[in-house]
Amino acid sequence: MTTEKNYEVAQRIRKEVGRVIVGQEETINLLLVGLFSGGHILLEDVPGVGKTVLAKALAASIGADFSRVQCTPDLLPSDVIGTTVFNQKSGEFEFREGPLFAQLVLADEINRAIPRTQSSLLEAMAEGQITTDGVTRALERPFFVMATQNPIESHGTFPLPEAQLDRFLMRISLGYPSHEEERRIFRLSRQDAKALQIEAVVSPEDVIEVQNAVRQVKMTQEVEDYLIQLVRKTREWDGIAIGVSPRGLIALGAAAQALAVIRGRDYVIPDDIKYLAPKVLTHRLVLDSSMRLKQKTARDLLDEILNDSTVPVEDDAAQAAR
């Protein structure tokens, strides 16, 4: 598809999801960045702000198969992936797919699942496939995982390890709505449910075409150097014990390409990287214990790195990419 058609696909999804999700334009854009770049999103926020509604609306707007996994401590990997059972009629063993065999999967309160169940998502998220009993099964594209967790409640939870966090493209928060946005939400809640039903405005095939186009988005060497410079600085910056891995570098580059597409461009500009860096890199950083005493966060240190890095001239980057 052309740049204009890719942008139009993004616009259709944004408009349709925006019918039921009030005041979350930036969040919807970030979800589209995740979807179009082939990444996955961790939504971290308190209950009741619309995380589940957002996931369902996005799935419906692209006509994708949707499944929801309610994570609890007694949830087993086979409950998510699926299991092999004996069919008495055929006299053979057959595999019954679990909820992970959907195009958009919502893992609700993922930090309530035990580590063994959390890790069952790793292969699917990283490689788009599931291996059971020595058989590898490809997942249908587009495959997109949205996981939620409550950052306040810690009783009965299992914090996601760094390896699991690294599989998420971004960790984002919806936040509370403004006064007027909350008024609109309240009024929407009293409308007929049929009037708020989300329709498929694009197809999964359209999404796959945009994903393929994202990989072709141009990035000049100057913008590449800026991207690499940011990532390498996280590995040597004072206060950061473990910096961003090459996987994080690739993730930020892919996210910037997807952002360029939904902004109507076929090339990346430095502002794309600067805007996305806190959202893509922060959850990949491990800080020294001394930073807790200084009450500094990963975002604080990443802001220092961004301020210390030389940004390429945007017009030159755009001109060179054309």
Automatic annotation (TrEMBL):
Transmembrane segments: none annotated. Residues 37-178 form the AAA+ ATPase domain. Pfam families: AAA_3, AAA_lid_2. This is AAA family ATPase. SUPFAM superfamilies: P-loop containing nucleoside triphosphate hydrolases (SSF52540).
